[in-house]
C-alpha cells in the first residue's frame, strides 16, 4: 500500500494510457502460479522509465512486496554499488526495519533468492545495460515466488533474451505529440492561433519522441513567432533531423554561462543527488537550480556506442600537466597506472574513489572546494600545510591507510568534515577545532581514533557526531563561543567515562543522543543549565548511576530515554512539566524504584517500561497521568496484573508478559483505548474471568466505540480460535462476504480477524479487500516505530482483530485509478474477498464481520456473554 499513488500524478503524462493498454496483456496478470519477466526496450527518450513508473504505481499494491530500482546503469559501476542495489530490493520488499548489510554481490544474490523465493513480488529494474547486472539482481524466475512480475527497461533488446514478453513503445500519435509539445511551449493542450503551423513544423523535427517534444517545446516557450521561424529554418538546413540535432539547437541557444552549467551537470553530475549538485555548482558562482531542473535535457546526452570505457586502462603521471582548465575530476574505480605528480590549480572538486596511492599532489595554493574519497589507499592527504581558502567540503570514507588527518589551519572556510570508517585513523589535527565556518563535523566508525581535537572553538558548528569510536576516551572540550551546536550524537564510544563540564556552553543544544557508551558514569551538573535541551537519550549507558540534583530545572525537556541505565533511582521529575516521552526500558525497576513524583509529569504522553524484570505491578502514580496516551510493558515477564490505568490511555502494549494473570475489563473505563497488544500473555487464558473480559473487549464496548470514530483500531490476544460472533470464518488467509443490498448506505466498517502462529510488532498486518473489478484501498496499518523487537511464537498462537471504518476506504479499479471516498453506488453486487497476512506468513484462520448501523444498536442492547471460542 505504501507504494500507491493517486492517478492525479499521471494526469500530465500524454499517451500513457495507450501504452499501458498495450503492455497490460503482456503482464498475464491472470496467471498467478508463474513468475513472468517483461522487458520494455527502445531508444533513449521514448519513455521507458515513465511507463515503468506508471505501471509500478498502478499494480504494486497487488503484491506482497515491491521495489523500483531506477537508473541501474548509473548505479552499478562497482561491486559496492551492486550491493547497495541488492540491499534496496530487500529493504523495499521486506521492510525498512530490517538492516541488510551486503558486502559481496554473490552473497547478496543468494540472500535475495533465499528471502524472496516464496513471496509474490513486483520488481522494476530501470535502465539495464549489461546482462551481468541481472545476474546479481534478478538472475532467474526461481528467485521469486509464484505470481511475481519482474519488469526490465533497457535500450538493448538483446538483454531481454530470457524475458517472457517484450514491449517496444510506439512513438506518440500526432494528436498526442501536439498536446505534449503545446503543454511545454504554451502551457495549454493545443497551439494558439498563429502558432499551429509553426508547431506542426517543430513536431516534425522531433520524430514525435517525448523527450525531444518536451525540450523543444520548452525552448520555444514565450518566444515570438519570428524566433520560431528563424530556429525552424536552421533546423531545416541541418543534414540530420534526428533528436541529437534538435537537442543541440536548444543547447546552442543558451549563453556561454548557461552552457557551462549544462555541460558540468551532463558530464560530471548525472546520477548525483540534486542537493549535492546544487552545492557543488554554487561554489563556482553558478545558479544551478535552473540547469538542474532541465533534467530531461541532461538525460538526453548519450555517450556514442563506439565509445568503450573498458578500453581506458589508465593514464600517465603527467596527464594533468596540459589540463590547466580542469575544474571537476570524478574517478570511480581503479583507474590509474602511474601516480599523478601534478593536479591543476583550477581544480575545484575531486571525487576519487579507489585511489591507489599514498598521497594527493594538491598544489600549495589550491582553488579546491570539495574533496570526496572512498576506499582509497591514502596514508596522508597532503604533506605540510596547504593554502586552500576555497575548501568547504571534505568527505573521506573507508580510507584504511589514513592514520592522521592533517593541519587545515590554512583552509579556514571548511563547512563540512566527515571522516567515516577510517579504521586506522588515530589523530585529527587540533586545527579542526578552530575552523570558524565549520557547520558539520563527523568522526564515524573510526575504530582507533583516540586523539580528536582537544577543544572545539567553532562558533558556527551545528552538528557533532562521534559514532562507534571505541578507542576514544574523551570528547573535546567546548569553548563559550560554541553557541549554535544543536545536535550532539555520541554512539558506541565504549571508553568514554564522562562528559566535559564545558557542555554548559552549548546554549542552543536541543538534542543530546548518547547511546551504548558503556563506560559512561558521570553526567555533569552543568547539563542542567541548557535551557534549550528538548531531548536526552542515554540508552545503553549501563554504568551511568548518578543524575544531577538540579535536573528538575530542565523545564523544556520533552523526551528522556534512560533505557539500560542505572540512574532511574535518582530521578526527580517534579518540575518536568514539558516532558512528553519517558523511556525506562531494560532496567531492573520494581514498584518501589520508580522515579519520585512521576505523577508530576503532567504532560507525559508516552511511558516505556519494557523488559523490566523486577516489575510485578504498576505503581499507583501511573493512574494519575491524565495525558498519558501510550504505555509499553513488553517483555515484563513478572508483571501479574494490569489495573488502574490512566483514563486517557490510547495504546496499551504488553506483549510477552508471560506471568500476566489478571486484567480488568478494559472496555468499561477507557473510552480512548484503540490499540491493545497482549500476544504471548498465555496465562490470561487460564482464568475464565479474563476470557469474559476479552470477549467484552472484542464485541461489546469496543465495537461500539470503534464504530463511533473514524479510526483503525486493533487488539491482539493469545489464543488460536476466532470469537464466535464472527459469523464468517474460514481456514486459511482468505474469506468471502456477501454484502446487504444498498450496503453503501448501511455500513459503518469491517471487523477482520486472523490467527497467526507468530506475530511481531515490527511488521504490520496486511489486509486486502476486493470486489470483482475493484480494490478497496485502506491505509497501511503502521508497524511499531521503536527499536525493541517484541515477537512471539507460542503453542497457543495469537488472535489479531482489527476494525477499519468504512470512511477510511478508497476505491481503485483494476484498469485505472479512481480514488473516491463517497460514491460507491456503482458497486452493486459481487463477493467481497478479504486476504489477511503479515510479514513472512499468512493467517492460519481468518474471520470477517461487516458492521452495519443496526449491529451497533443491537450491541448496545445486548448483555455480554462468555464464549468458549478462545
Automatic annotation (TrEMBL):
One Pfam family in the UniProt entry: WHD_ROQ1
Domain Disease resistance R13L4/SHOC-2-like LRR: 493-642
GO biological process per UniProt: defense response; response to other organism
Protein name: ADP-ribosyl cyclase/cyclic ADP-ribose hydrolase
InterPro entries: Apaf_helical (IPR042197), C-JID (IPR045344), Disease_R_plants (IPR044974), LRR_dom_sf (IPR032675), LRR_R13L4/SHOC2-like (IPR055414), NB-ARC (IPR002182), P-loop_NTPase (IPR027417), WHD_ROQ1-like (IPR058192)
Substrates-to-products reaction catalysed: NAD(+) + H2O = ADP-D-ribose + nicotinamide + H(+)
Naturally occurring in which organism (per UniProt): Mikania micrantha
Positions of the NB-ARC domain: 21-189
C-JID domain: residues covered: 717-857
EC number: 3.2.2.6
